[in-house]
Amino acid sequence: MTIEISEDELALRTLVDFGDHPSGFLALNEGTERFTAAGLRGFIAYRRSGRYLIQFGGPFAPAEDRMPLLARFIDLAATERRKVVAIQLQRADAERYAEVGFTVNQVGATYALDLDGFTLRGTRFMRLRNKMSRARRSGLRVIETTTEECTALTSIDKRWLRSKGRHVKEIEFLVGQVGGPMQAHRRLFVGLLEGEPVAYISYSPVYGERPGWLHDLSRRLPDVAPGTMETINAAAIEAFRAAGTRWLHFGFTPFTGLDPALEVSGASPMVGRFIRLLAAHGAAVYPAKSQVSYKEKWGDLLVLPEYLAFYGRPRIGGIWQILRTSKSL
Hints:
Low-confidence stretches: 166-170
Shape: globular
Strand content: 25-35%
Strand order of the largest sheet: 1-2-3-4-11-5-10-9-8-7-6
Structural class: alpha+beta
Oligomer: single chain
Mean pLDDT: 90
Number of strands: 11
Distance between the termini: 50 Å
Helix content: 25-40%
Number of helices: 9
């Protein structure tokens, strides 16, 4: 008897076997295409935007197939008369891309918390504990559930988005999703008040050198008590540690953790200046400072650089296409 396996499940197996990327599960987002090539294992996750093929992460493939797969992807772009730009490359991929003709710059950093021996005791976390106590006094209760059992998430999403202003769009591509064919592999923690959902955090699995969970999509009603999201995350941490999970990843934040010493050979001074300009004045484009502040409140984090790469000559328009594709603009 032959058992057919869906393309999504095949891609997931590839991530499990070869995906050493903290945000790699986002490659399975609905709306993201996966490039494959005959005779090569693995795939490249990407989206089309204007004159660009925007690649997410490096090739998710065994080591011997990674660069041949990238070469075929570049051929696809040439056939379509498009340019390749890659976002969220890990350091090893950034160095390899630079060797084959890409111009590579650091664009931000990814953050991870080692849960081995993690505790919120001590004066360092007193302020955080007080916020969580305030949320619990408001009646907040946290449960782990599924989207099938929690149909109120769409209402939370809509009210959360409205609270951001009528011109704000739902960011996608570089963040995860709730629902869809891969939902069974995520974990969902929901905050309840009087039995009604008021906030949630979705966690995606992380494979590779530091396996664990990615603190991914988070939403809340605008009028919930301060400390609500922290209380939900603390409950999730307890569940992860009970299962022996070592790492909680907080994921990528653009325009943060920038360091000239982390640039790879051949980095573009022009792109570097533009990224630093966004880091200094780009709060309207992306709330990087508030994101990092939330992440750092959980303790000492492992901070690793992530990179932006243009095949050939870099163009500022490529960065704007990434921001448009992710709906950050």
